[in-house]
Batch of 2 targets.
Target 1
Amino acid sequence: MQTKDYVLAVEGLTVSFDGFKAVNDLSFYVDEEEIRVIIGPNGAGKTTVLDLICGKTKATDGSIKFRGQELTKKSEHKIVHAGVGRKFQNPSIYEDLTVLENLEISYPKGRTVFGALAFKRDDVIVEKIHEIAETIFLTDLLNEKAGLLSHGQKQWLEIGMLLIQDPDLLMLDEPVAGMSVAERKQTAKLINNITKGRSVIVIEHDMQFVEDIAHRVTVMHQGKVLSEGSMERVKNDPKVVEVYLGH
Amino acid sequence: MKKVLSNFMPKNDFVMYAILLTILVVVLPLALDIFRLNLVGKYLTYAFVAVGLVLCWGYGGILSLGQGIFFGLGGYCMAMFLKLEASSPENTAIQSTPGIPDFMDWNQLTALPWFWEPFNSLWFTIIAVIVVPTIFAYIIGVAMFKRRVGGVYFAIITQAIAAILTILIIGQQGYTGGVNGITDLRTLLGWDIRTDSAKYILYFVNVILLFVVLFIAQFIKTGKLGRLLVAMRDKEERVRFSGYDVANLKIFVFCVASAFSAIGGAMFTLQVGFMSPTFVGIVPSIEMVIFCAVGGRLSLLGAVYGTLLVSWTKTSFSETFPELWLFAMGALFIGVVLAFPNGIAGLYEKLKLNERLTRLLAEIRSLRPMAITSYNKTDNTNSKTQATGSSKKSSTDNKDNLSIDDPNLNNAPS
């Protein structure tokens, strides 16, 4: 109805795997420039929600509207073209290519076969790559094979690969998993920096990190929304304490 | 312009291409008699397939065990043209229906089948040699990759198609010449292809075409598409969620590999003088993968050397111990996969022959200005730093040297 006011409007979303409803009649809305964090116990369906939004999994029922466009029927690459970027849980980068080449492939140009054949690395692209590399703290490692990066640097690189696509909606699945405390702080700063002009959905378990970045928090449990609101409110919600935060 | 060129082919690669060209155009024709040179020509037609496999399998991670399909289709297209020319009414006057190929007459056909008609034209044939196999590859590609069939399943299906095509060719004897294939090919537009001079010319044409194919492959490999293929082999999902239609990339590279194979097939027919189902089926298709693996599945030139080496060994070995060859081939493949996953090219990298060669070349180059301007010290040191600079660059520049513990290798057929 009023979905246009939201960047993302998920309504009645359901997916069932052989009768098991991993996501069950889920609805939530993400505002412009909002950082939304989804938390919840293991198996709550958090990653599945991201899979559904980016088209990796097809919904059984319900709708996902992104700036008024229905995403549930689109193929993955079309969803990317519409402006949705997604980071996977395990750092998903091209280990045999250099950091620069990793970023270059993610640059939104020459995305068809013949476009790629005609693609030239011009100054605009190189400049953009350097700009992004600086944001993700990898300027000195541009010509290094990505496989040689540390775990944290790989996570940053993947975030950088999304940034260079300049998506309107950025989805990050556990961006600080496996990072050191210092790296977590740096990543929180990074995420706060990069959200200017875009909306972000983050899945995370680290409560300190969630408090650092979240505008609003959605708590999921058994495929449904258990609670939603500011971190303060959610933390004090007895239902949330019972299923998630309590132990 | 110069920059574009050096992006396309680093200096080091250029030297390697020049070495191969010299071997093929100067050394071998001078060293071998025409019988042996013709054999080399035959081996080189397999190299087209191996080069295609480097792109498709080495870079794209798509293992096709059915490249014989496309080699065969290209070869058959060429053979059909040559056979029609050899079956002029004068040549076939003793048949009950003169003017059609002999095997059709033996199978009681009384008219040329409709799909043979266009092969009276050389231009149609040349186009068909490339287009027919490419369309076939496109159909297979769309059917498989759009449904996300990949990896081992794709390999098995291509193998099954190779088997089916062989059975089809053998079964339709009246239309295809059956198990004997299309034999007794004589002339190309009146030019006798069986003479020694024709064999020399065809050999050189073959080498030129091989280099054209190598340059196309080099262009694809060094451009963004080449990097995309590597990325796709590594993390297909990431490429898909970076906004690429992965299926299209796979279809393209599979079609390119098929077109290369088909050109090889057509040159095979011209140089060997016949085409038969033995070159379509499972065994030749797997042999071609072995050529590529032995040469190094990430190196275009390695694939050519691998093909020459394995084929040469096969010929010499099977002349002496025919029954042992298959075992030797199997052992070779297992040995390569276990010991040198990147084949000859990988071994070459490991021994750093590459850097030694560049250093040697750089030294030669730096010697020259030294001789001329030996009194000018600044100039001298300048050229020296340049030389060491270029040798350093080559070691980091080498894209062929990819990670050895590539997961795809463990999937290789053994």
Target 2
Amino acid sequence: MAVQTMVQTIARTLDQEMSADERVVVLGQDVGKRGGVFLATEKLFDKYGPDRVIDTPLSEAAIIGSALGMAVHGLRPVAEVQFSDYVYPGFDQLVSQVAKLRYRSGGQFGAPMVVRMPAGGGVKGGHHHSQSPETHFVHTAGLKVVFPSTPTDVRGLLRTAIHDEDPVVFLEPKRLYRAVKEEVPDDPDFFLPVGKAVVRREGDDVVLVSYGGSMAETLKAADALQEQGVSALVIDLRSLMPWDKGAVLDAVARVGRVVLVSEAPRTVGFMSEVGATIAEEVLDMLLAPPIRVTGFDTPYPYAQDRAYLPGPNRILKAVKRALAY
Amino acid sequence: MIRDSQLFQPFNDEPYSLVGESGEWKGDFELDLDPDTLRRMYHDLVAGRMMDERLGRMQRQGKISFVAPTAGHEGAHVAVAHALEPGRDWLFPYYRDTGLLLAFGLPPVEMMAQALASRKDPSRGRQMPSHNGSKDLNIFTIASPIASHIAPAVGAAISMKVQGSGQVAVTSFGEGATSEGDFHAALNFAGAQGAPIVFVCENNRYAISVEYNKQTGAESVAAKAHAYGMPGVTVDGMDVLAGYYVMREMVERARSGLGPALVEMLVYRFGPHSSADDDSRYRPREEVDAWKRRDPLQRFRRFLEARELWDDGAESELRSEIDAAFAAAAREAEEAGAVPVEWMFDDVFAERPAHLEEQLHELMD
């Protein structure tokens, strides 16, 4: 076990995966000598050289498109997009090529590749360094989407993503890159399945569901509720496509009240899907309607970002509504 | 060194041409292809044309929903296929490459089955006609979004370089594709990496209706190669031998580690953009007729006849043979039956996740 931050865990996991399997290559802008702008690929260039740690031109279309060709030709590329806000020049590659290749070829070709991207707000980056684009990817059939929130989950899911036969969009909550250090398992058999949520805290009064960067705020809200004598069951979804419907429905059916927390814009955000599924499948077990606490339907603001992001106060207000319903 | 013996200097003012309109050899080097190879090239030209004609008939009969006509492009198609090693090299084609796919080894029954979306289609009825692919033959499955396959081709070529596999990737596209950002992104990356890839632009002067001079202010597509640090060569794409020799040189160059090249094949689309297009709205008939008189099949046939390698008897025998083979392929593809509805839920992922399982049952139960 090593005590590590999330970003250190990414670099170490990539190192170990590259060492174990020479098909694994890393590509992206500044991933080489610079070690990535967040240092998520630190020291890989010195160890593996320019053929396996490929500094690309400043072109997300080239990064994502070429990663697909590498995957088709037998490599296991892990592409880095410097910020998820910059994925859009490569969005057509993800949507039209990467996501569709297995389907359109009738399963002849697959796309075993990972596209890592730091996502979400809270780093004073303005809208072009802070957005939460997960809905675009979840809405694109053929992509798996994960959005872990702890170093341990990052390790388990990144390893699974690299071994997966399908493309995985790996969203990393950049504001948690260095927020927490924890003991991260070294066990070579440690993998976490894509599509499985985890219960972070047991509780009886209300269910809080979140993922990614908002998990930290959600747990803070659960602490505050505890002090008020309200026990919250907290679920970290970890994966958005596929997502763990069973874990959410079980908890909500048991507790009857649910607050859904995501910093992405509200309309057609991921929590809209979770809320609709709850309403369709366990309506008669509900004591209150599912309530969303989300980012607003504005571009991500610069000066008012603390007000935009769902923090403990907004979550508590929603829980109060749910309890009073 | 290949560079020293380079026959075709890049950024040429006039398109390279080796066979004149009346079939005469104009090259200043010895032709080094044996009669069987030359006849095989002619076979592949005719097969491409006859498949195009048959698919067109099937579309008009209502058997298939769509087709992208390819007549006029066959010279480029056969040139590219013959410069590669099928089974070893990789092809990243686009939707106007019927003759190229056949010459690269795609079985006619697979082409028919793909067009018909029948059970014999290796891609399981997932796309509209003219969108083939074959893992067995290293043919990357065609996608409609223009230029989106060029960066994947570069990635495969980088992988070939990194793995030292000695393979070469070729990707083809129309001149409209050269206006997309992904064309630039891909060629730029290939140039920076020295990747073993040849980019083939089948420049037929019209992107649906938009003419070349509205597409770009560049004097040629090949000229664009200069900025990416690779040779750009313009070829008369209606001259299969010119296309072949240029491609052979560029493929050998890439294979020996000298990096990518861009080859512009000047061709003409005899038919409309697709079965849904009316090209009389934007192309004068006199222009189309003038280009049809430069038919790549006719020119190469005259070349063979001048060398006494071909005659009317051989022609009618060849056409009957291909026609019978294609008819049998069409029958086999059709008799396999339509793909079943439940296949819709396969191949989204390697394994079907729970939500797709639920949706399958929602539909079928």
